[in-house]
Amino acid sequence: MADQKKKKRRKKETQEQKLRRILIALVIFAVIFAIDELGALKAAFGDPGCVYASFVLYLVPFVIAGHDVLRKAYSNIRRGKAFDESFLMAVATIGAFAMVLFPDTDPHMAEGAAVMLFYQVGELFQAYAVGKSRKSIAAMMDIAPDYANIEGENGELEQVDPDEVTVGSVIVVKPGERIPIDGTIIEGVTQLDTAALTGESVPRHAETGADVISGCINMTGLIKVRTTKPFGESTVSRILELVENASEKKAKTENFITRFARVYTPAVTGAAALLALGGGLITGAWSDWILRGLTFLVVSCPCALVISVPLSFFGGIGGASRIGVLVKGSNYLESLAEVDTVVFDKTGTLTNGTFNVVAIHPESGIDPDYVLSHAAYAEAFSDHPIALSVKAAYTGEIDRNRIRDVQEESGHGVVARVVEETQAAEHMVLVGNDKLMRAHGETWHDCSLTGTILHVSVDGRYVGHIVIADVVKDDAAQTICDLHACGVRRCVMLTGDREEVAKAVAEQLGIDEFHAQLLPADKVERVEALLAGEDAKHKLAFVGDGINDAPVLTRADVGIAMGAMGSDAAIEAADVVLMDDKPSNISRAIRIARKTMGIVWQNIVFALAVKLLILALAAFGIANMWLAVFGDVGVAIIAILNAMRAMHVEN
After folding, report:
1. Quick check: helix, strand or coil at residue 245?
2. How distant, in Å, are the alpha carbons of 240, 386, 402 from that of 405?
3. Can you tell me whether residue 464 is helix, strand or coil?
4. Residue 549 among the catalytic residues
């Protein structure tokens, strides 16, 4: 970590030194240019002498600004890798100075020095743009913890490397510190800042029993956390790995530009040489045609493309990370832009994945709390998810001494005797499904709501029922609406749940198509069928969170995992990870991807169109070296400014 910080400082100092060097060169150039334009050199040295004086004077800012470019070009030639922008700049600018050897032509030292200066200005601008686009990703790199606090036998805290902490150890996290390893709070209450991971600005409340993930900042209280994963498998480690590997997976467009530059640069170098030599041999006007060839070289430099296209993708990935969406590579960002079908797993993706009491329907004249309290007492000793949801909904404290003769009837429900608080009477309580009611000869009422229905009977009297369901996420309906609004043609839901439950959720959210009662293998088959219906221009994205979703995530064109609570297998198999588990960020990620691809193609078309136009003008002797400077540096700066728009993400 310390080495990385030193490296960053060294890099920053180098950029500052380069900026100072170029500013000095610009000032010297401006002074010489002003003196030259005012005719002072001609007055001092006469007609022949002023040309050589200009040569020597302009050589000073040229060498100050461009000695590193010349050195790089020389080094690349020695290594057999001559054809790059440094080579083009070196040949073109040295050639401009060499025009002094042709007394019959106007001197071009000023243009040669200007080309090098403005090229370096463009390079500085590029470095600034890349640095700015790295900002959000670099902020993520800072989430890596330096240490973990282990409490010793005498109560003193010892700082150890997070890698040395074993699973099941208890670590102490003080206010202001980052949580170093995933785990569960066993003591303490606090607020957590999760902005670096999820983009959420609002702190999250966490108390004993809550799961916490590494990388979050403990804001208020001291907490003790029992680790559940080794550091290498914790959330922060997975995020850092995803970020570090993102640049390795290039989009087809980015790969095309790289291959294009490899062929394009030697081709235009040959064309410039052919133009200069061919024109000189045919007409005998060597100075004119050499100047055309040099202008051709300056314009042809592919900086605008080789800089702006990768920068656009990098900016898009960085912008997505600001809202808590990690894209594993520019190839996935490109595919995300082409998505027109989004397939969702239901549980844990569109719903919270936990049972909750959604309604209590008492019989006439009976208090809903009476129904819930008797159900909670009867279910007091059960660890079934449905029983846990009933107890969670009951706000009172359960006195287990008042419960007698609890009998669980598998697949039906629970029968128990509950003593009144005053010990005055004892009641037989039945809590379960219609099979339990039928088995005990009770009457009950059906419910129009979809979910698990718990009927409650007290002393042979039906008092009402409780509806328990997996609650839909707050932003799920808005997610489907936003996806349709941004051009997604179909939203499909796959689930292993019952047909009636799936239908109710689909209707509630506005899902276009759903398939229920599916096994993991069935989900893969459904996705295969949907993929078969897609054309080559469109992609299918699958969104899931469970370990059983991993095969489908891998098979889809774009796999999107719910990262904060999702399984390790799902995150590993996915191409995009939503760190805050909010499905609404899917449409935002698609918009970012489409905006990025729009910027990429704008830059490609603009750069090629301007360059081809100026190249044609240079070949006919219409374009001079100053226009060539615009064709290279000007176009590059405009393309970089456009690429920087990909970093901007509206909240």
Report:
1. helix
2. 54, 20, 10
3. strand
4. no
